[in-house]
UniProtKB/TrEMBL annotation:
Originating organism: Byssochlamys spectabilis
UniProt feature, compositional bias: Polar residues: 1-16
Name of the protein this chain belongs to: CDP-diacylglycerol--serine O-phosphatidyltransferase
Keyword terms: Endoplasmic reticulum, Lipid biosynthesis, Lipid metabolism, Membrane, Phospholipid biosynthesis, Phospholipid metabolism, Transferase, Transmembrane, Transmembrane helix
Transcription found in the keyword field: no
Annotated metabolic or biological route of this protein: Lipid metabolism; Phospholipid metabolism; phosphatidylethanolamine biosynthesis; phosphatidylethanolamine from CDP-diacylglycerol: step 1/2
GO biological process: phosphatidylethanolamine biosynthetic process; phosphatidylserine biosynthetic process
Regions crossing the membrane: 77-96, 142-164, 176-196, 216-234
Cellular component GO terms, alphabetical: endoplasmic reticulum membrane
MF annotations from Gene Ontology: CDP-diacylglycerol-serine O-phosphatidyltransferase activity
Amino acid sequence: MSRRTPVSSVSDSSTGAAPGSDGGQEKQKMLLSQETGHFSLVRALHLADLITELNGFCGVMSVFSSMRYCLGDSHEYGAIWAALAFMPFGLFFDFMDGKVARWRRKSSLMGQELDSLADLISFGVSPAAAAFALGIRTPVDHLILAFFVLCGLTRLARFNVTVAVLPKDKTGKSRYFEGTPIPTTLSIASIMAYWVSQGWILDDLPLGLVAEGTPFEFHPIALLFAVSGCLMVSKTIKIPKP
């Protein structure tokens, strides 16, 4: 859920900055265009960008924790609890990077892209990996989870393309999201956390297995991910921005 709209696309009436007046953005462009300098990319990152990287870090650690659970004792829940816990930490950093960018009055196209990529890992790939670890593992389940991740990818790409033309409020922020923001997938993560607390995992997943023993067997509970994916790419659903 990218909140970091480039300053060049809209004016910021709260700071009095005119379009294109962000010196930090121009400096970043200059550093990124340099042909020499091994650390020019690092020097081009703003503080908000580093916070966004922490969002991505939480997503990656969540995926690794899900993988660790798959490799260990299925009755030891420490790794899967860690996988689920990293997701809300990712949301915290996703919230803070926008706050810091507005506080420092520095934003950039690179920051916007970093934000979307980190969100895809933390709120798209990591919930799907946790679902796989908990037992949603049939070939049809894989297709459903892949659909979910691709919907998140498409939703974030659409946001980056349309953010400049969506209606703005007086501060220059978009008034609403088209489709549900990708961090809303944390609602599914909270449901999975409840499953773990009740021991409803692997062979004991809620609603069981349909068409067992056939190539089309799948867990009906996986349809939660399909519904979430459809809501993310919806054009008619408009969620007011906080």
